[in-house]
Amino acid sequence: MKNSKFSKIFVALFLLIGLISCSNDDEIPTIQPSTSYIEMEAEGGETEITFSNSDWQIAEVRNQNGNVTIQGSTYSQDGEMIKENSVLSLEVEGKIEALWDSKGFVITRGTPSSLKVFLKENSTGEEFSFTVLLKSGEEVKEVEVFQKKSQGYQFDSIEFNLKENDGDSLFVKKGTTYRFNGPQSQEFTVSPYGGIDVDKHSIFLSSKKDAFVWIENDSIMVEVPTDIYNNELYFNGEKRLYGKYSSINPHGYEEMETVAIPAGQSSFYIEQKWRKRQVSYELTLINNRTGEEKIIEGRWIETAPTGEYSIKWQG
After folding, report:
1. Would you give the distance in Å from CA 209 to the centre of its chain?
2. Which pTM value belongs to this model?
């Protein structure tokens, strides 16, 4: 009976020693993020990751498409740039960022034990993913970030309004020069708005980098102002193509001018009066996924001949 009790005690001690030995072999990871995977919609946003300790650093950020190191800018906690166009890393508080026209991210370490991951809207038409490599000594931990591709937007409306520096302004352009050398006088008929670069040029401009990407595959014609009087805009159904490139429309002046040319050498050119019109706009798009509005502000600029001109003789 005593031998049996002694055997049971021996076995229990043996198992306890074994468990203690196993516990010593399995070290608790130093880097313990609250999540190792972030998934975000194309519209972007911000997610916070917390840690149980602060003994870690961001070693680098890698693009999952091609597994290449992403370069960008590194800032101190007070916002001073430390590095530019270099491998992204951060040992203490501060932030790193890689921002492009159509996608990008900002990772901020506001406290020793937290990270905030901000993604701007993804307008590439493709998924965007990258990996944040965290390091503590020889230990490495990865946090994967995945952003879905956008489902796009639909055009809803556009509104024009007059802001500071908007309105009409006039300027003159020198048209084609005509030269003559004949023994007798003659008549010459010319189009006052003939030649090159004499049509209406219309362009939409915006400081927002994604102002045109959402509808660049669609041809959207929008009604534009045809007159400004007493700070009021007037419309008559005339439309222009909304996009990032300039559009050209005929000037519409078809009249001809007959000029009496004297004998001998002579020359003249047409001095044309032109108008530059600048009007601010607010474009509204509807997100296909969320149904929410996206507002894009900018300026519409058009240069066009007024129809007024004069004959300018040269010596």
Report:
1. 2
2. 0.78
